[in-house]
Amino acid sequence: MIVLAGTIGAGKTSLTRMLADHLGSQAFYESVDDNEILPLFYQDPKKYGFLLQIYFLNKRLAEIKNSFDNDLNVLDRSIFEDALLFRLNADLGRATQTEADIYSSLLGNMMEELPQQAHTKAPSLLISIQVSFETMLKRIKKRGRSFEQIENDPSLYEYYRELNQRYVDWYASYDESPKMLIDGDKYDFVEDSHAADQVLQLVDDKLTELNLK
Ligand SMILES: Nc1ncnc2c1ncn2[C@@H]1O[C@H](COP(=O)(O)OP(=O)(O)OP(=O)(O)O)[C@@H](O)[C@H]1O
C-alpha cells in the first residue's frame, strides 16, 4: 500500500482521495471527526496523550491489515509518524518515560514482519507532503477544527512550530520503505488543478520507477 505523511493540514486526506481515484484503488481514511479522544487530548494532553497514541496505533494497524493486499491502496497517514508525534509529546512532558518506552516497544512488536507472511506491513511507498510553517498555520485556520485553533490555545503555536520542524528530520531519516517528497507550498493540489496533475505525474513516475505500475 501507499501511505501519505505530513504535518497537520498538509493535505494528506485530499491527496489520498485524488491518488486512489487516479490509480483505481481503495482509499483508507482515519476519521478525525469520529475520534472522541482527540478533543480530550487537546484539552488535557498530559492526561490523554498515552491513551490517544494507543487509540491511533490500534486504528492504523487495522487500516494496514485491511489494505495490504493491493500495493496501490492509499492510506491517509502513516503509523510511523505517530512515533514522531508521541516523542514530541513526551519531550514536552505530556507522557512519562515509562509510557514512551512501552509505546515504542508495542509499536516495534506490532510492526515486526513475520517470516513467510505473504505481505509486508511496511508500505510500498511513503509520500510525504512538506509545507512551510506559514502554510500549515493557514490551513489549520482555514479548516477551522475548533480544538486545533491557536486563538483557543496560544500554546499550540509552539507545538505546531516544533512539529513542523521535526517532520523535516523525520523524513530525512525514514528508511522503512521507498519514499518521495511533495512540496506542498509549490503544488497547491487542492486549489489548483494544474498543480494536481503535476503531482499525480510525479507519483506516477515514482511508481513506474519502483515497478508498481
Ligand atoms: N499520533 C498523534 N498524536 C497526537 N496527535 C495526533 C496524532 N496523530 C494525529 N494527531 C492529531 O489528529 C489531528 C488530525 O491530524 P492528521 O494530520 O492525521 O489529519 P489532518 O490534519 O486532517 O491532515 P491533512 O489535512 O493533511 O489531511 C490533528 O489535530 C493532529 O494533531
From TrEMBL:
- Tell me yes or no: is Cytoplasm among this UniProt entry's keywords: no
Q: Does the keyword ATP-binding apply?
A: yes
Q: What are the record keywords, sorted?
A: ATP-binding, Kinase, Nucleotide-binding, Transferase
Q: Which Gene3D superfamilies match?
A: P-loop containing nucleotide triphosphate hydrolases
Q: Which InterPro entries match?
A: DCK/DGK, Deoxyribonucleoside_kinase, DNK_dom, P-loop_NTPase
Which residues does the annotation say bind substrate? Answer: 30, 42, 53, 77, 82, 148
Q: Which CDD domains match?
A: dNK (cd01673)
Which residues are catalytic?
76 (proton acceptor)
Its cellular-component GO annotations read: cytoplasm
Q: Which residues form a coiled coil?
A: none
What Pfam families does the record point to?
Answer: dNK
Domain named Deoxynucleoside kinase is located at 2-204
Q: Which top-rank group of organisms is this from?
A: Bacteria
Name the family.
Answer: Belongs to the DCK/DGK family.
Q: Which PANTHER family match?
A: DEOXYADENOSINE KINASE, DEOXYNUCLEOSIDE KINASE
Name it.
Deoxyguanosine kinase
